[in-house]
Amino acid sequence: MADIDLSSSISNDDLPSRSK
To answer: Where is the segment annotated Disordered (predicted)?
Structure first.
């Protein structure tokens, strides 16, 4: 399930709000 968290992180990178 932790793998999903990693994938989510990449998707969040698309958002400037979650960029940093």
So the answer is: 1-20
In the block, tokens 């990693």 appear at 6
Q: How far, in Å, CA of 19 to CA of 1, rounded? A: 22
- Looking at residue 20, what DSSP letter applies? -
CA atoms of 17 and 3, how far apart (whole Å): 22
Can you tell me which residue has the tokens 């793998």?
A: 3
pLDDT digits (tens, 9 = 90+) for 1-20: 566 565 566 666 666 665 55
